[in-house]
Amino acid sequence: MNVQPAGRTLVNLDTIVYTDQAKVSDTTVELLGFPVAVEATPMSYTWNFGDGTSKTTGSPGKPYPAKEITHKYLKRGAVGVTLTTHYAARFNVAGTGWQYISGTVPITGPATALQVREAVPVLVDPPN
């Protein structure tokens, strides 16, 4: 998971989140002498912003300047942002055809630390 700006942000600033977990993950294992292909496809993403709010999307988001998935923090402090990716899965035993597994499997990644700061505007005389 990625957060922009990285490491710190400002109160009332659009903070961008996105992930690279957008493609199908696949592997083949042997079970009782048969090859078993397994695929996991991301279906949705739940972003927990660490301030008591969360958002579920069907998109992994995109980096700046896209601003596809954003969050505005309302107060300063240290937060941990987490992403739970919900995967749909299917398997194929020895080429007999794909079998879908009902429901989704939620996988939560580690928290990304973010310091939310507050900035105060100050008017100054322009240089001559």
Offer a concise description of the structure.
By secondary structure, the protein is mainly β. It has one domain: Immunoglobulins (Immunoglobulin-like), CATH 2.60.40.10.
Written overview of the protein:
The chain has strands at 2-4, 8-10, 15-18, 25-31, 34-48, 54-57, 70-71, 77-93, 98-108, 112-117. It is an all-beta fold and 128 residues long. The protein has a single domain (2-117), classed as Immunoglobulin-like (Sandwich). The strands form two sheets. Strands 2, 4, 5, 6, 8, 9 and 10 form a seven-stranded mixed β-sheet that branches. A three-stranded antiparallel β-sheet has the order 1-3-7, with no helix packed on it. The chain is elongated, with a radius of gyration of 20 Å. The mean pLDDT is 96.
Lay out the secondary structure:
Elements: E1 2-4, E2 8-10, E3 15-18, E4 25-31, E5 34-48, E6 54-57, E7 70-71, E8 77-93, E9 98-108, E10 112-117
Parallel strand pairs: 2-10
Antiparallel strand pairs: 1-3, 3-7, 4-5, 5-6, 5-8, 8-9, 8-10
Features of the shown structure:
single chain; 128 residues; mainly beta; Immunoglobulin-like; seven-stranded mixed beta sheet; three-stranded antiparallel beta sheet; 0% helix
